[in-house]
Structures are given as C-alpha cells and as structure tokens.
Design brief:
heterotrimer; A mainly alpha (258); B alpha/beta (247); C mainly alpha (313); B: 247 residues; alpha/beta; Rossmann fold; two-stranded antiparallel ribbon; 8 strands; 44% helix; C: 313 residues; mainly alpha; MetI-like fold; 2 domains; elongated
Amino acid sequence: MIRYGNWRIWTAASVLLLCAFAYLFAPHDPYQIELGKRLLPPSSEYPFGTDSMGRCLLSRVLYGGRTTLGIVLLTWLATLAIGLPLGIAVGFWRGRFRALGDSFLNVLASFPPIVYLIVWMGAWGSGTNTVVVALTIASLVSLVKLVKARAEIERDKAYVVCAAASGASRLRILFWHVPPNLIRESVVLLSLISADIVLMISGFSFIGLGVGEGGIDWGAIMTDGRTVALLRPDIMLYPLALIVACAFAFNVLGEELK
Amino acid sequence: MLRETTLTVRRGEAIGVTGESGSGKTTMLKAAMGVLGRGCEIDGGEIQLDGRAMDKLPPHERRKLAGTSLGFVPQLPMTAFDSRIAMGRQIQAVYCKRLGLSREAATGLAREKLRQVNLLDAERVMGSRPGALSGGMLQRVAIAILLGLNPPFILADEPTSALDPDNRAAVIALLQDLKPTSGLLVVSHDTEVLGRVCDRVHVLHDGELVEEGNLAELLAAPKHDWTARFAETAGQREEGYWSWERW
Amino acid sequence: MPGQRFVRSAADVVLTFTVVTLLSFLLMRASPIDPAEAFAIRNSLQPSDERISELREAMGLDGPLIKQYAAWLHNAVRLDFGRSLVNNKPVLSEFAATVPFTLRIVALSAAMQALGAILLGCLGYRYRGKGIGSVVRFVTVAGVSVPSFYLATAYLDTIAVKLQWIAVASGQGLLRDWHPALCLAVPMAAFYGRMLTGILVKEMEEDYAVYARCQGLGENYIMLRRGLPHALLAMLPNFMQSIGFAVAGATIIEQIFSVPGIGNVIVTSVVNRDAPMIHFSILLLAAVFMLTSRMSDAARTWLNRDSARGNGQ
C-alpha cells in the first residue's frame, strides 16, 4: 500500500500541482508584447525579466506549466477512461483472432510515444489538440497491453468464476471489482510515461513542432532563449529547471508507487 | 528468528542440528558463515572460531575465513553452482583464490580431489556445466572442493535432502571421511546422516535449542514434543539400508 | 514445431505491416491538410480549384481509399514508394541516403550506453546504501529527467562550438558522430544503469552468489564475474528494445546537430505534409520496431531455454 508518510511522493505531487496551477498567480499577461521593454533583466516588476518581445518571462513560464501539465492531465483522463475498460474487455475476449491481436498490440506498444506524435502531427499539423490525441493513443496502447494482461490472469480466478456462477456476467464482475493493484500499476505506468511526455512536448516545441503558434510552452521559450543566449543566458534556464523538475517528479512518483 | 543459542564444535567431532522447518537451522549456519542475506541482522551473542570472535571482524577479514577456516556444503547443489560456467573453472577459481595456487596447480588439485570422491571421469566433470551433472555428482563436487581446501570446520546445510538414496549413502560416507580432520556442524532431517555421521544431535525449535543427545537417545526417549513426533515418523519411514533401531 | 512457428511469425509480421500502413493511409485521408493543395500552394501563388483537382488526380489522391492503398501497395511490393512531393525525388533513395548517418549514430550511442549503464549499474550496486550509491541513484533518475534536446543544445553551444571541436559547417567521419551519439546515450545509460542495479541486487542474493561467498570468493569478484554476466543476460531483451528507442530519439537530436539522418527526413516530411514520404516513414519505423521487438523476444526465449538447460531441467 501507499505509505502516506512517504515524503517523496508528496513532494513530487506538490511540485506537479504547483507547476500546473501556478499560472493563476502570474503577475502579467503572458501574451502581452511590450516592444519597449525587451530583454530586461530580473526586477521586482518582472521577477524573471522579459523576453525578446518584452513579455513577462515569469508569466510565460507559469503558463507553460499550464500547457504542458494540462496536456498531461487530459492525456491521463482520456487514457484511463478509455484504456481501463477497453483493456479489461479485450482481456476477456476469447475470439479466434486473439493471438494476432496480441502480437499486433505488442508491436504497437513497442513504438515509443514519439512515433505517435510524429505520425499524428504529420496528418493534423501542430497544435495542442493534436498533441493530446497523439499522446493519448500512445499511452492507451501501453495501458491496454498492461490491463489486458492483468485481466487475462484475473479472468480465471476463483472469485470471478464464483460470482459468475451466481448469475452476473464475468465482464460486469471485473468492472465492479477492479483490483486495486491494477489501478496502482496503471498509475505507475502513466507516471513514467508522463515523464517522457513532458520531455517530448518541450522537445518538439523546441524544434518548432508541438503546440504551435498559439501556445506557450517551455520548449518554445527555450528556443527563444537560445537565440539571445549571449545577452541573457538565464532565459533558457527557467523553463529548463521546470522541465527537469516535472520530469523528475513524475519519475519519482512512478518509482515510489511501485 | 534465532534466539539465544550456544553450540560448540570441536575438530574431530560432528554435531548435528535438527528441528522443524523455519526453526532457524539454516539461519544459524548462514550466520556462522557470514552470509546472512539482506534484512537479517545479528542482534546479540557471539560467533567464535578458536576462541576469537568472528562476527566482530570487518567483512573483508570475515570473507577470508570462508573457504580457509570454514567450509560449506550446500543444500541444493543444482542451484549452488553458477549455471553458466564450467565446473572446472568454478573449482579452479576457489582454489586459486583461497589456496593461492596457479591455474595449472589448481586444475591438477581439482582433478585429484574429484577422483577422490569417486568422480572418476574428472575431465568430463570439469568440462561440464552444472546442468549436465546430477544432484549427487554436484554434491560430491562440493565435497571435493572441501577436500582440497581442507578447512578445520565444515558446515553442512541439509547435505542429503536433495539426493536419492544411492547418492545419500555416498555423501554420508564422504562426510564420515571428513570427520577425523575437521569439526562438522550438520543441519539435517535425515536420520541416517544424524545417526551415522553425528556424535551428538541438538534439536532446534522456534529458534531455541531445546534438547540434545545422541540420536539413539533422542529417538528412544524424546523430551520435547517435536522430537517425539520426529521419532515417530523416523520409525515409520523406510530408511533404505538402516532402520532406526540399529542405533 | 519451429517451422510452424516461423510461418505464424511471418504471417504476424505481414499482417501488422498491412494494418499499420492502412491505418496511416486512413490517417492521411482523414487529415484536414490536403497534400495536393499544399503542393499547389507551394508552387504557385493562388492555385485555382481546377488546378488543385488536376493535381490531385495526377498524384493519385482521388478515388476511394482502398484503390489508393491498393495502388500504393502494388508499387510498394516492387519497391517503388513514389516520389517526394517536395523535390520529386524517389522516396526510397531519399531515405536510403539518410540511413548510414542515423545508423552510425545509433550504433555508437548503443556502445556508449552499454558502457555507461554497466558502470552506473555496478557502482550503484557496489555502493548501495552508502554515499556514492545515493549519488549514483540521483544521477540515474536525473539522467532520465533532463531533456536530451537540452543536453544536446547545451553541449553544442558551449562545449563543442566554443572549443571548436565541431566544424559546424561540415564534417565527416566518426569524430562528428560521437557528439550526437553521446547526447543520445546519456539518458539511456541512466535508465539502464538504474535497471542494472536493481537486477544485480536480485542476482547477488541468488543461490550461486551465496554459495560463492561461502567458498570465500570476494564480493567484487562475485559481482563482476558471476552476478554481472547473469544480470547482463537478463537485460539483453531490454537492450534490444533500446535500439528502437534510439532511432526514435535520434529525431530531435538529428535536428539539433543538423545531421541528415532518418529522423531529420521524417520531421521535414511531416512539416511539409509530404504524403509519400510520410507513408514510407511509418513503414520504416514500424519495421525498425518490429525487428527490435522480435529480436528482443528471441533473446528472451533463448535465455529461458539456456537457463533451463543450465539448471538441468
């Protein structure tokens, strides 16, 4: 069971929540361009200074957190909502093409999320929605593989068979009695995937794909910062610190919950 | 968990320890060898070798005792050896390290000792991996290694429990051969081992030593519950060559 | 029967390929971006609708999906994957030119990663519970948390350029490859190093290790000569998989180091909505992952059989 006194889990969770919601405390409008105030060093008005378009860097970084973690959150919700029932259903299925379906699923699950991102963006271009959908599909495949394997094991266990004997359909039983371990394992899987996702989202924004024009993302801020690195070398470091913090937090969360 | 226990072994004599599973027999041996796994600790008491406290030694020194002063006979010879390496190399590694021999000298010694335990096709044995040899052969190899190391004390963890009757007899004979030069501490359930090899037998129950004596005495007049049950089943068991009345 | 299994395997492979490529077709079809339109816009300022539909017909993008797919498949079997919509060069040759670059980087990275993982894994085991062990543990978790693209850029901007180790304009040979390979290898070495420590902890409590200690062999000897080989074998399947990950990870790294490798070509095609190139990319990626996952499975099976034999079963 989760040891509630485990400081690592709480610290990691706090970091993530902070990054996700701190945008509510942003001092300025992150989109507001002030060409007269470009590249100002950190001050009391602009705690991180301004970027090359005069926008408040702190606000942009905080909104970047909203973007990235928002994507991750949506991905989690969609993946769990679809993946858990789907995985259980597939695990129960005893159709003729199970072996083929199995190997197909295994191959799909062996593609890292980056492949899905590339493919999806090829079809739909950049943009937050595209990214969420692509990452959801990528995580779904891994989650379904995990849940299916567990469901197959549970399917033949005594408690399921007994309950089935008393009239309920096996499927319904498993839905109601989803083993707590399964949820925990899914969370571990998603946490570890999320660490990769955070890195990937910023990575893609860094090279110009990813969330696209309208969105603010840490990777994009870093690209900006790179061009002016001689004048303001610190610009790259703020978003970097947060990227590392979030990825680290997800990794810690995944490891500690194991 | 093992509680306050005191056991003394002298060279030339063999002490047996028996008791139900989980009573701490293997733990005791492992503690004496210094190979307790993770999560096990020694809480109190002492392990002495020739009057010197062993457990207070730094790990490096303690490890040196293994193989030179203390020998070990494993319970499961099939898994005790590394499944990927040929027997010859494994034996040679021990001899080189513990006896300081060169590779050739070690190999020669190995061959000699293997023949001594009646593994006459020593070359084949040395060239094989553990998977190609039977449990009985592997146990004999373990004892052969000990013959080469010649440690003053030998600890044996249920040396016959994984063996068939023929091999059991062979191993018992080898243990008897080892007795004159070494002190033996043998953990076993096997009445043959306890009767033919050991001079005295201690009974361990729930981590404590509850009874001791000659095996015949114990079986004839058990004082503890467990010993009584042991005596009963020993009598009922068909023991191959010997019945318990012999003692 | 091995023969039967091989046929099953082959059928699996073919089927997976078919489904994957069909899905990619569906994807492109469902996409709001029309390659014909994109092409037309790129080549003339204000293309008329007739021009666009002419183009579409010429590109074979009209007609039912099945027909398009069948046509593509028909050509694919003859190794004709069409021509790039951007520069009209054959898709296959465009990719073929890039393979050696990526291959070199991935191979080099695999070697570095193996060495790094072994080092970190052994140190992490040897000093577990002590100061250095905590440092190693921190490094391994940090290593997978730091974005490799940042490592790459930081590396490029500071070390390489400043010290003029890279002639930014051009450069051939091994010397050029090891920079991106290093950036690719670091996070993976951290990841596998951590895994190796965990496996070592388990292996060093196995019977053979305990008995080796009873024989008086030293702890370091047991770790290096007995435990490590077992642990490495156990990790072999994972390592095979990592090759696939390396190819994928190379995408971003290649962009940063301006290496004209597979990843770079894929990203460019995605940006340009170059449909034939994208279809082939998907095929290629699918092939790489299928190959590595099969190798990994084969390694797993061989290991199980080998250890079963070793234990006399």
